[in-house]
Request: fold
Amino acid sequence: MARYSAWSVFKNGLTGNRQWARAWRDPEPQQHYDVVIVGGGLHGLATAYYLAKNHRQSRIAVVEKGWLGGGNAGRNTTIVRSNYMLPGNREFYEHSLKLWENLSHDLNYNVMFSQRSHVTLMHDPGEMDVYARRYNIMRLTGSDSELWDLATLKKEIPHLDYSADARFPLYGAAVQRRGGSARHDAVAWGYARAADRLGVDILQNCEVTGFTRQDSRIVSLQTTRGTLEAGKVGFAVAGNTSRLWSMAGMGRLPIESHKLQAFVSEPLKPLINHVVSFAVGGALCYVSQSDKGGMVFGGDLDWYKSYAQRGNLPQVYDVAEAVTSMFPCLSRVKLLRHWAGVMDMSMDGSHFICKTPLSNLYLNAGWNYGGFKASPASGWYFADLIANDRPHSVIENHDLDRFRRGIIIDERGAGPDPKLHG
Ligand SMILES: Cc1cc2nc3c(=O)[nH]c(=O)nc-3n(C[C@H](O)[C@H](O)[C@H](O)COP(=O)(O)OP(=O)(O)OC[C@H]3O[C@@H](n4cnc5c(N)ncnc54)[C@H](O)[C@@H]3O)c2cc1C
Reply:
C-alpha cells in the first residue's frame, strides 16, 4: 500500500483524485487467527496495530459488529490531556500523550492532533488549591502544567462571563498546554490503515454472537460471518463489555453501561482556541471549536443505565444551560446535532487492562468517558499484555482483583458509584 506524502497528494491531484488505493482491505475471514480482538473502536484497532508493530505478531483479526468508528470512537468530544495524578494512571496517560504527539507521523495519517491547551476553570481558592496539588504532581513527574490567575485567564479566553453577577464567578484556571484535541474518525482510520499494512485482517459487519469454551480457554468465536478459531482473544468493546463478558459465561463485571451525549453547533468564525472545561455546583461542561467551526461540547451522563446510542432531552437542556452560563455569547447559536455513546463506567473511574479467569482471554474496558485520550496507550499496553501474557508494571493494578486487594484508583474521589466518575 502506497505511503501518503505531499508528493502523493500532488500526483493524485493531477489525475482528479481517482487513483487513490483503498485505505485498508476488506478480507474474507480466515478459519484460524493467533489473536482475535473483538471491537473495532480506537482501543481494538490500536491494540492490533501495536501487536503487529511492537511484538511482530501475525495472523491477527479485529472483529467489528458494525463499521469502524461507529461506536464511541466516532462519538466523543475528542479531548486529549494527561492531567491524572494517581500512580499507574499518571504514567499511563503521560505515555498516551507522548504517543499522540507523534501519532500522525507514526501512522502516516494526519489525525489532526492540535495541542491547543486544555483549560480547567476554577471558581474559588479552595478549588485552586486542590488543582495545585494535582498539577504540581504532574510537573514533578515530568509532565507540563500551569495555574493561571484571573488576569491571565481573561487575556487568554476573553469570551467567558467575567461579570460581577455571573452565575459561576471565575477565579483562575489549571492548564495543560500540551493537551488539546484530535479528529476522532481520522484516528480510527489511521490505526486501521496502519494495522492493515502490517497484515491485520479488519472484519467489519462481523458481530460476535457466542463463544465455544474448553475448560478455561476460548477455542472459537461464533460470528455473523462464520466461526473463528483463536489462539488468544482480547475484548475491547467499551460499553458492550458486560454483554460480551456474560456471553463468554463469565458472570458479572464491576462495570455499568451509561450513556453520554455530545453536541455540535452551527459553524462559527474562530472564537475559542482552547479546550475549556469546568465542573461547579452540579454543572459539568467542556467545549472546544472544531476545525469546521462548530462548537463541540458535552456534559454529564444521562444518569441511567442503557445500551442505547441515543440521549434524552433533559440533558440537552442541562448542558446548553451550563455552556451558555460560561459563554453567554453562545446563547443564540443554533445546535446542529446531538448524539450519545455507551460508556463503560467502572466502580472507581479507572480502566481495566488485564488477564481474566480464562487463560487466553484478555480484557480492555472501564474507560468511563475518558477513553479517547487513552487510546494510544491502551492499545500499547493491551498489546504488550496479550503478547507477553503478563501485565506491564504501569498497568499492574488495573486489574479486576484490585478492589479485593483494597487498591482503589479513584481520581475524582467520587466513591463506588460508577455514574459519578468521568
Ligand atoms: C459523547 C462522548 C464524549 C466523549 N468525550 C471524550 C473526550 O472528550 N475525551 C476522551 O478521552 N474520551 C471521551 N469519550 C470516551 C471515549 O470515546 C471512549 O472511552 C472510547 O472511545 C472507548 O473505546 P473505543 O473507541 O474502543 O470504543 P468503541 O468505539 O465503542 O468500540 C467498541 C466497538 O466494539 C464493537 N462491538 C460491541 N459488541 C460487539 C460484538 N458483539 N461483536 C463485535 N463488535 C462488537 C462496537 O460496535 C464498537 O465499535 C467520550 C465518549 C462519548 C460517547
User: Anything to note?
Assistant: The pocket of flavin-adenine dinucleotide is lined by residues 38-44, 63-66, 70-73, 75-79, 207-208, 236-240, 244, 260-262, 298, 341, 367, 369-373 (CB under 6 Å). The two ends are 39 Å apart (CA to CA). The chain has a mean pLDDT of 96. The first strand starts at residue 32 and ends at 38.
